[in-house]
């Protein structure tokens, strides 16, 4: 009897809403939204380009050496990683290396190579960039973060109203939109902190460190 009640509750309150949700929004829309938010997380986690300082470093896997210098095939359990700047082809950053085909190893290898190039470039940038320019970028990221924060909050509030008056599906759409916008606010706030501290290339665990130990939307201090 209890099992039948549980099955009934599961059917009416879990399975049916999920099916209706998929039919209302469509799997393509849900996948598209998830992809957008995944890209936002990638932009937060991936290191900045050490050459142009305008975009993040992205990578592609390849069984063959992407440099084209040899035709070597990656040994079993490993892969060649081809690094480029998200601002390609305007930015000429291009680097390849061989590593174990695991997410952790790939990210560590990517960050090590970027940090090696960026250490020298960082010192050069600190000499080239004026305090006025740095403060301008800090403020731009901060103002963007605040704008997105309030837009996200408005969407979350709207989701509660739609839940009361229009049902679960309207609530889900507004909540999903609010989550994506709030993620953009965190991204901008993190970039503002990076510009303040000049922690540009060392991205290993940096976002989580900032998330746990710093006030996300604290007004920045001028350099």
Describe the global form: flat
Instruction: Please mark out the parts with pLDDT under 50 across 5 or more consecutive residues, or reply none.
Output: 1-6, 20-26
SSE order:
HHEEEHHHH
Please indicate the percent range of residues in DSSP E strands (runs of 2 or more): 5-15%
Radius of gyration: 22 Å
The total of beta strands comes to: 3
Neighbour order of strands in the largest sheet: 1-2-3
What's the mean pLDDT score? 76
Question: How is the topology of this model organized?
Answer:
Blueprint: H1 2-25, H2 27-45, E1 57-62, E2 78-85, E3 94-100, H3 103-128, H4 131-165, H5 168-197, H6 206-213
Antiparallel strand pairs: 1-2, 2-3
Short description:
With 223 residues, the protein is mainly α. 64% of the residues lie in helices and 9% in strands.
Q: Explain this structure to me?
A:
Strand 2 (78-85) and strand 3 form a beta hairpin. This protein has 223 residues and is mainly alpha-helical. The longest helix is centred in the middle third of the chain and has 35 residues, at 131-165. It has helices at 2-25, 27-45, 103-128, 131-165, 168-197, 206-213, and strands at residues 57-62, 78-85, 94-100. Mean pLDDT is 76; it is low at 1-6 and 20-26. Strands 1-2-3 form a three-stranded antiparallel β-sheet, covered by helices on one side. It contains six helices and three strands; from the N terminus they run ααβββαααα.
């Amino acid at each position: 009897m209890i099992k039948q009640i549980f099955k009934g509750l599961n059917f009416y309150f879990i399975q049916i809403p999920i099916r209706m949700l998929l039919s209302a929004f469509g799997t393509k829309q849900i996948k598209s939204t998830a992809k957008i938010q995944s890209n936002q997380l990638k932009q937060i986690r991936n290191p900045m380009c050490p050459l142009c300082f305008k975009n993040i470093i992205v990578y592609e896997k390849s069984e063959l050496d992407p440099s084209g210098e040899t035709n070597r095939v990656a040994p079993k359990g490993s892969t060649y990683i081809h690094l480029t700047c998200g601002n390609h082809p305007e930015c000429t950053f291009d680097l390849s290396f061989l590593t174990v085909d695991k997410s952790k190893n790939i990210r560590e290898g990517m960050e090590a190579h970027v940090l090696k190039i960026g250490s020298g470039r960082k010192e050069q940038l600190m000499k080239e960039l004026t305090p006025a320019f740095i403060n301008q970028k800090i403020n731009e990221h901060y103002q963007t973060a605040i704008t997105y924060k309030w837009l996200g909050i408005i969407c979350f509030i709207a989701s509660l109203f739609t839940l009361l008056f229009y049902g679960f599906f309207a609530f889900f759409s507004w909540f999903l939109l609010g989550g994506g916008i709030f993620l953009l606010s965190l991204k901008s706030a993190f970039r503002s902190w990076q510009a303040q501290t000049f922690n540009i290339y060392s991205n290993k665990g940096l976002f989580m460190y900032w998330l746990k130990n710093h006030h996300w939307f604290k007004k920045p201090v001028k350099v």
